[in-house]
């Protein structure tokens, strides 16, 4: 059989076939426009199935619907018209280990450029390899160092990782962030955690405490996390903890804990993700917003100990036009409270 070399058409057919599998799995595919091969061909917008009740023909009916989770998975798609016997002049490379095959990226320099793009993406990135002749697809985790061969120019794909409707349970776990340990660190409070709060004008001094944390006060020191970098205390955090529909004792307690929150941010070296992530897309950027929590056992010098939780808002940005442009995450203080406190 004659070898097909219409690479542009073959590539587009591979994207269409991948798109179909993603839709069949209940998720959405969003291509990234552009004729240049930058390393990201598009991304999966992951969804989950939920049950809802709707009134249909005047009758309350239980229905199933898909809702977006806000989680994204980047895609690099490689396609061949058919798998050659020897893998020469093709993306496909035959390996000694018959349970695997290689995907050729030509040179070490070319693959390293793509690795940089994959590491810059706002979520995990997978390679999807499409064989148009058999309609079979496989996938590999491109953020896993074990997916790369020692020769420096090849991605290794395990044949057991078939890309179909059943693959997404495994793929969704690639970006899952967990506490590194179930043990919470202990923090002992000192007088300096509460120095600036005064009973005679609690509201005014509370604002002064927050202004010192945000950088607009006289005694500003940046808050640097060992894992997340600088954490910014902005107006949105103040508005969140003092919002009108929040119970007064909750507001009071969060203000008391502001000094403690800074110490937690600076000392806790693991976090977990909470809530559904959201993403915003413009012509140039993809921005993913998610919420992280830090927890510690806090031993107060004036009352009983308690677990204190800090909630952070993280914004991850990916430049679609210049994917090699590494944009640092922005992390903002969102709230602080005692999750097990009852008042």
- Radius of gyration (CA) equals 25 Å
Number of domains: 2
- Which of globular, elongated, flat, extended, rod-shaped describes the shape? elongated
Tally of contiguous helical segments: 7
**Structural class, judged by helices and strands?**
alpha+beta
CATH structural class of the largest domain: Alpha Beta
Distance between the termini: 76 Å
Second rung of CATH, namely the architecture of the largest domain:
3-Layer(aba) Sandwich
SSE series: HEEEEEHEEEHEHEEHHHEEEE
- Report low-confidence residues grouped into runs of 5 or more: 178-182
Largest sheet: 7 strands, mixed
**Beta-strand residue fraction:** 35-45%
Structure summarized in a few sentences:
The protein is an alpha+beta fold and 343 residues long. The chain has seven helices and 15 strands.
Would you kindly provide a written description of the structure presented here, covering whatever features stand out?
- The longest helix has 18 residues, at 7-24.
- This protein is an alpha+beta fold and 343 residues long.
- The chain has helices at residues 7-24, 108-120, 168-172, 202-214, 235-241, 248-256, 258-267, and strands at residues 28-31, 42-56, 59-80, 92-94, 100-104, 125-131, 136-141, 154-158, 186-188, 223-225, 229-232, 272-281, 285-299, 306-319, 330-337.
- It folds into two domains: 7-175, Trna Endonuclease, Chain: A, domain 1; 186-337, no CATH class.
- The radius of gyration is 25 Å and the shape is elongated.
- The strands form three sheets. Strands 9, 10, 11, 12, 13, 14 and 15 form a seven-stranded mixed beta sheet that branches. A five-stranded mixed beta sheet has the order 1-2-3-6-7.
- The N and C termini lie far apart (76 Å).
- 22% of the residues lie in helices and 36% in strands.
């Amino acid at each position: 059989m004659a070898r097909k070399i219409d690479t542009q058409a073959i590539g587009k057919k591979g994207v269409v076939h991948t798109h179909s599998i993603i839709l069949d799995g209940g998720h959405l595919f969003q291509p990234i426009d552009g004729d240049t091969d930058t390393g990201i061909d598009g991304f999966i917008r992951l969804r989950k199935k939920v049950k809802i009740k709707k009134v249909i023909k005047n009758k309350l009916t239980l229905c199933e619907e898909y809702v977006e989770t806000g989680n994204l998975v980047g895609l690099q798609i490689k396609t061949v018209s058919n798998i050659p016997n020897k893998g020469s002049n093709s993306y496909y490379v035959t390996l000694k280990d018959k349970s695997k095959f290689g995907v050729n990226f030509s040179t070490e320099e070319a693959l390293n450029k793509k690795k940089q793009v994959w590491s810059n993406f706002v979520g995990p990135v997978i390679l999807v390899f499409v064989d148009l002749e058999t309609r079979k697809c496989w996938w590999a985790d491109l953020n896993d160092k074990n997916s790369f061969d020692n020769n420096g120019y090849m991605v290794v794909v395990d044949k057991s990782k078939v890309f179909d409707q059943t693959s997404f349970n495994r793929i969704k776990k690639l970006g899952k962030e967990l506490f590194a340990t179930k043990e919470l660190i202990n923090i002992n409070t000192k007088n300096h955690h509460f120095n600036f709060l005064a009973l005679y004008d609690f509201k005014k001094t509370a604002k002064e405490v927050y202004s010192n944390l945000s950088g607009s006060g006289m005694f500003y020191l940046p808050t640097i996390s060992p894992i997340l970098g600088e954490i910014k205390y902005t107006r949105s955090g103040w508005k969140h903890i003092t919002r009108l529909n929040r119970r007064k004792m909750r507001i009071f307690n969060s203000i008391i804990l502001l000094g403690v929150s800074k110490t937690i941010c600076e000392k806790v070296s693991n976090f977990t993700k909470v809530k559904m992530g959201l993403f915003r897309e413009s012509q140039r950027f993809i921005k993913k917003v998610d919420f992280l929590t830090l927890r510690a056992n806090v031993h107060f010098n004036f009352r009983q100990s308690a677990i204190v939780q800090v909630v952070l808002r993280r914004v991850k940005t990916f430049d679609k036009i210049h994917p090699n442009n590494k944009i640092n995450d922005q992390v903002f203080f969102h709230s602080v409270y005692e999750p097990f406190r009852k008042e």
